[in-house]
Amino acid sequence: MRIGAGMVGQHHSHGSNINNGGHKVGYITNTKVIKKKRYIRRVKRRVPPLPIALQELFDACRDIFKGPGTVPPPEDVQRLSRILDNMKPEDVGLSEELQFFKTKNGVKGVPRVTYTTICKCDNFSLCIFFLPSGGVIPLHNHPGMTVFNKLLLGSMHIKSYDWADPIDSSNASSAPSHLRLANVKADGILTAPCNSSVLYPTTGGNIHAFTARTPSAILDVIGPPYSKEDGRDCSYYKEFPYSAFSSGETCPGIEDGKSYGWLEEIDMPENSQMDGIEYLGPQVMETSSC
Ligand SMILES: [Fe+2]
């Protein structure tokens, strides 16, 4: 998912909430009252609860992501996936009781997506995307990246592609040259609570799109982060069905049950700009730089 150029800047003036087309994304605030007891020595300093799961995720990311040009080995992917599989909305300060997630009906106008960045360094970033009902993160890629997605709340449709073998593309020769053949990797509905998923630079559905069926929050672990300067800018795509430009011959790989589509690179869709908000959930302790 895109972080950086093209997005609307952060709106810190709203504090913990941001008006998102009539909807507010908020965080749980620690309102627990600690009763003082007579005759018992008062606790001098209130210690906030430790964000164990988020800290574990951060520490694992620091160990696992080695920077541009690297992909975590399978055992590291398993480690991160296990941590994410067990994470709950509360681990990042969210709850289904927040008004944003209770607003089941669509919003007026274009339902804008909001994002917040928990942390970002040269090797990885942790972000949460908030989609109101009907909100869309359009088809986009993750060049050279390994990305873990964990749907924390809500239900969304996900469609993802990987580029097809160039030989298959050249066999289906009736397509205009600006279109490129891609395999459909996923085309289905995801509803929380659910396990995390992972995509790689060339496999696992590196090009993907989300459409929220209900107000949703998805946690992204991205390594390395987008960087225009380092050649990892985000590209957007428009999809066409395979049949729209097939030459009448058999679809390549159809015997294997594979499904295909044509992708055209486009400018960032105007109605897909996002609003950034400050992250106010549990903090991680950065004991050393990542
Ligand atoms: Fe993405």
- Low-confidence spans: pLDDT under 50, at least 5 residues? 1-22, 31-37
Overall spatial form:
globular
**Mean pLDDT rating:** 83
How would you spell out the order of helices and strands?
EEHHHEEEEEHEEEEEEE
What gyration radius follows from the Cα positions, in whole Å? 21 Å
**Looking at this structure, what is the CATH superfamily of the domain at 12-26 and 49-160 and 189-232 and 271-277?**
Jelly Rolls
Could you say which small molecules are bound to this protein? fe (ii) ion
Strand order of the largest sheet: 9-6-11-4-3-14
The CATH topology of the domain at 12-26 and 49-160 and 189-232 and 271-277 is given as Jelly Rolls
Helix content class = 10-25%
Number of helices: 4
- Main β-sheet description: 6 strands, mixed
- DSSP E strands, number: 14
End-to-end Cα distance: 21 Å
CATH architecture of the domain at 12-26 and 49-160 and 189-232 and 271-277: Sandwich
CATH secondary-structure class of the domain at 12-26 and 49-160 and 189-232 and 271-277: Mainly Beta
Family: Belongs to the cysteine dioxygenase family.
Protein name: cysteine dioxygenase
InterPro entries: PCO/ADO, RmlC-like_jellyroll, RmlC_Cupin_sf
Catalytic activity: L-cysteine + O2 = 3-sulfino-L-alanine + H(+)
Labels describing this entry:
290 residues; mainly beta; Jelly Rolls; six-stranded mixed beta sheet; 4 helices; 14 strands; 12% helix; 31% strand; globular; binds fe (ii) ion
